[in-house]
Structures are given as structure tokens and as C-alpha cells.
Amino acid sequence: MTRTLLLGALPKVAAQFSAQDLHPHTVPTQTPAPTAPAMPSVEMLVTLAMSEAPVDRRRRIARDASRGLDMLERLHQELLVGVPAPARLREIVEWAQTAEHPEDPVLAQIFHDIDVRVRVELAKHDIEV
Length: 129
Prior knowledge:
This protein is an all-alpha fold. The protein contains six helices and no strands. It has helices spanning 2-16, 19-22, 42-50, 54-81, 86-98, 105-124. It is elongated. The two termini are 41 Å apart. The mean pLDDT is 76.
């Protein structure tokens, strides 16, 4: 991919130099028309599409943490009425197994607190994650 980028930039750089730049005592020749900028490679476009901006990543992790809190709230409501639904417990187990822990220290602490609470609730029902 780097090679493609370098080769794509080569015509731009080469177009800036002329034979007169190399040999100032020669008669000026017709300068070539400027070339169009190189099109980005498919690899570069795929890489850019796959990368996630830090702000988007934080939002996604915040939504995931909020989802964990919502599940805990629904579990609490079900426990007040009686026995929680098995589907609710499975949903919480799935969340605990797939949740991505953030690198940001503040978000990581909040996420850790939610994760501990989820594991405590699951342990009350003899479920280990």
C-alpha cells in the first residue's frame, strides 16, 4: 500500500521539475500539462473505512455501557416482581462476554463498575462469566 502511495505521488513531483531546471542554459521547451492527482487505491479506501475515529469509538463504548445499565435495571425490576426471565439472564451473560473494555481511564473505571455489578448479579443466580 505504501508503494502505491509513493508511486501515485511520483507524477506530481516529477511534473514540478523541468529540463530547464536541470540545465539552465538550454532553450525552454514546452512544459507538460499538470497531471491529475492520483486516485486513492482501493486498499487505502478500505483501510480508511475500517478505521474508527476515537470519538465514534467512545460513543460506541458509552452506548454499550448504557446497554449494560439498562439490562441491570430490567433485571432489578423483574426481581422485584418475582423471578427474572431466563432470557434476561442470557442477555446479561452475552453482554458481559462481548463488551469491549475502553482504554480511556475514566471510561474504563465506569465500565469496570458496571461489569462488577453485572457479575455480582449473575453470581446471585449461580452463573459464572
